[in-house]
Design brief:
Number of helices: 17
Largest sheet: 4 strands, mixed
Strand content: 5-15%
Shape: globular
Order of helices and strands: EHHHHHHHHHEEEHHHHHHHH
Structural class: alpha/beta
Helix content: 55-70%
Radius of gyration: 21 Å
Number of strands: 4
Length: about 325
């Protein structure tokens, strides 16, 4: 790590364990039903390797959690509370299935995961090396702190070539913000890209994840200001509103996307930003994204002039400014 880098890249066996158990559930099949996509060779081979233990009690317990709608964020957060390799924790949350810790220990041994990971060491080390290359000399905290104030947490990126293969999982634990991310998906059934094949994608995705988890806590801490701002509906498309029905969901999604776009513009190129905005508009109905980008630019200018210290100071005037900006950029 250089002095200019503030993202720690690491592999984590606790994350790999939960990913492996997830591989033996029906999650991989259902993720393909939701969004058909090519997967990393390691993830496919892991499913095949774990076929003999697919009925293990640890897998069945996770399947029960999935069936009940438990979020992956909870499972991976729980994993990060565990010691390795003993898999001990000072406190087990109430939602954890009975004896899941013992089941996970048994699954790890019976499945011979340690030997499997050793056999697949080259693939994991490649993911680690590619990710370290992507984040060399990259700093996110100066970007985030202009909106949230001081960010004391360590930013951690964990490359994941197991499951989930089509989504990031970002959690907060022990003064860390941990983004667990797969490589970028390719078109159709093609395997995903190497982590360092498209640095812009990894940068914008991880920055969006870090800013999202910070924003969730930030909005909770300023609930009264948010409640007042949310009385004014946001100018979003029907497609976008159907996917994100609440004001906070709409604001969070647009804010994180706009922040990522501004980062790309500042650190990569305007063309990279334009391509990203076009993709978001076409794929997710984010027609108001250019307006949000315009508003955040205005905020940053005012922030540099000392008018606003952080985002909460801007929220009272945000709805009106966003409405005007969204109308202007749509002309």
């Amino acid at each position: 790590m250089t002095n200019q880098q503030d993202i720690t890249v690491r592999l984590d066996d606790r994350v790999r364990l939960i990913s492996a158990v997830l591989a033996a559930t029906d999650w991989p099949l259902k993720s393909q039903d939701r969004r058909p996509h090519g997967t990393h060779a390691h993830s496919r081979m892991t499913r095949k390797f774990l076929e003999p233990v697919k009925d293990h009690s640890a897998v069945q317990s996770m399947q029960g959690l999935l069936n009940s709608g438990a979020p992956l964020e909870a499972m991976f957060t729980f994993a990060l509370t565990l010691t390795w390799p003993d898999l001990e924790t000072p406190e087990v949350p109430g939602w954890v299935p009975p004896n899941w810790l013992g089941q996970l220990r048994d699954f790890y041994g019976e499945s011979r995961l340690a030997a499997w990971w050793k056999n697949e060491e080259t693939a994991w080390e490649s993911a680690h090396s590619e990710s370290r290359h992507v984040f060399a000399d990259v700093t996110f905290k100066p970007v985030l702190e202009r909106f949230f104030g001081a960010v004391d947490e360590t930013l951690v990126f964990v490359p994941n070539i197991s499951y989930p293969t089509d989504a990031e999982v970002t959690v907060r634990y022990n003064n860390e913000l941990v983004c667990i991310a797969p490589p970028r998906l390719a078109w159709g059934d093609s395997p995903p890209w190497p982590f360092d094949e498209d640095a812009g994608y990894i940068h914008r995705t991880s920055l969006a994840q870090f800013s999202r988890i910070l924003l969730h806590g930030y909005l909770r801490n300023h609930a009264e200001t948010v409640a007042a701002a949310s009385e004014t509906p946001l100018p979003v498309s029907d497609q976008f509103r159907s996917k994100y029905p609440s004001w906070q969901e709409q604001f969070t999604t647009l804010f994180t996307a706009a922040l990522s776009a501004l980062y790309l513009e500042e650190h990569l190129s305007k063309a990279e930003t334009n391509a990203y905005v076009l993709m978001e508009r076409k794929m997710h109905g984010m027609t108001s994204l250019p307006g949000m980008i315009s508003v955040l630019r205005r905020y940053l200018t005012a922030h540099e002039e000392g008018k606003y210290k952080e985002l909460v100071d801007f929220l009272p005037v945000f709805p009106k400014q966003f409405k005007v900006a969204a109308k202007i950029v749509s002309l």
